[in-house]
Amino acid sequence: MLSFPAEVTNVQATALLQHLVEQVAAETGAVLTVDASAMERFDSSALAVLLQLRRDALAQGKTFSVKGLPPRLRELAGLYGVAELLTAAT
C-alpha cells in the first residue's frame, strides 16, 4: 500500500509522483491501494498524482483503489468529473 503525506499541493506533487511511481513498479500484488487518509492540505495536484498512479497501475495490469480519500478531495474529484476513477478500497 502506498501512502500520501499530510500535504499534497503543487509544491510537492512532482517529487511525490516520482517517488510513488517507483513504488508502483515495485508493488507485486494485483491490487494497488493508495492510503490518502493522512491528507489534510491539498489542491487539485493531489488528484493529478492519484490519476497518474491509477494509469500506471492499470498499465501494469493492476487494479487501483484509494483508501481514506478526504471528503473535500472526493468533492473536488466530482467537480472535475473523475470521482468514479478513484474507487474506494474495501
Can you describe this structure?
- The chain has 90 residues and is α/β, with parallel strands linked by helices.
- It has a single domain (2-85), classed as Transcription Regulator spoIIAA.
- It contains 3 helices and 5 strands.
- It has a 3-stranded parallel β-sheet. A two-stranded parallel ribbon has the order 2-4.
- Helix 1 packs parallel to helix 2.
- The longest helix has 17 residues, at 10-26.
- The mean pLDDT is 92.
What's the helix count?
3
| Coarse morphology | globular
Number of strands: 5
Q: Return the string of H and E elements.
A: EEHEEHEH
Characterize the biggest β-sheet. Answer: 3 strands, parallel
Name the quaternary structure: single chain
Alpha carbon gap, first and last residue: 13 Å
Task: Please identify, by name, the CATH architecture.
Answer: 2-Layer Sandwich
The averaged pLDDT comes out at 92
Fraction in helix: 40-55%
Order of strands across the main sheet: 1-3-5
